[in-house]
């Protein structure tokens, strides 16, 4: 099962997959992979963390305070942190988990060739995959290939469905739940 979750920035893609990961763990399903979170200081977004869902290892993936690396908007991206935490988490999940979560396939992450390779390996692995794709990144050739692959189900997060989607996706992954 390969599921993609997309939608505009700030709509709740990360929240959907975070809730889904918890629901899966509550049912004793082995979940792994990576998730990204905003860092806010005084209600202003200043960067993004990447976290390994299995180990809790975190890395500062992008920051307004970095001064080198690829630039996406006002953030500089640390490819080293994406690879140290995110790529390692994806590869570990492909080896050891039942469901691989990849949050997110976005403009920052796509600068990393090892990240793209790990995502491709995950989608080719036969494991159940739930990934979020940033709306802007969906036009990237790498993302178009994933989005158009056979057997991929896509869910668009909206304000109207975001609270229901974790259970809908759970039922698709575990039809008997």
Q: Within the largest sheet, what's the order of strands?
A: 5-6-4-3-2-7-8-1-9
Summarize the main sheet.
9 strands, mixed
Structural class, judged by helices and strands? alpha/beta
Q: Which shape, going by the Cα principal axes?
A: globular
The count of DSSP E runs of length 2 or more, i.e. the number of strands, is 9
Order of helices and strands: EHEEEEEHEHEHEH
Assign a percent range to the helix content: 25-40%
- CATH second-level architecture: 3-Layer(aba) Sandwich
What is the CATH first-level class name?
Answer: Alpha Beta
User: How far apart are the termini?
Assistant: 15 Å
Mean pLDDT: 94
Q: What percentage of the residues does DSSP assign to strands (E)?
A: 25-35%
Report the CATH topology name.
Rossmann fold
Low-confidence runs:
none
CATH superfamily: P-loop containing nucleotide triphosphate hydrolases
Number of domains: 1
Rg estimate, integer Å: 15 Å
Q: Count of helices?
A: 5
What does this structure look like?
A hairpin with a 2-residue loop joins strand 5 (71-72) and strand 6. Helix 2 (79-96) packs parallel to helix 3 (113-124). This protein has five helices and nine strands, in the order E-H-E-E-E-E-E-H-E-H-E-H-E-H. It has one domain: Rossmann fold (3-Layer(aba) Sandwich), CATH 3.40.50. The protein is globular and about 50 Å long. It has helices spanning 13-26, 79-96, 113-124, 141-148, 165-173, and strands at residues 2-7, 31-41, 44-52, 58-63, 71-72, 75-77, 99-105, 128-134, 152-156. By secondary structure, the protein is an alpha/beta fold. The model has no long low-confidence stretch (mean pLDDT 94). A nine-stranded mixed beta sheet has the order 5-6-4-3-2-7-8-1-9, sandwiched between helices.
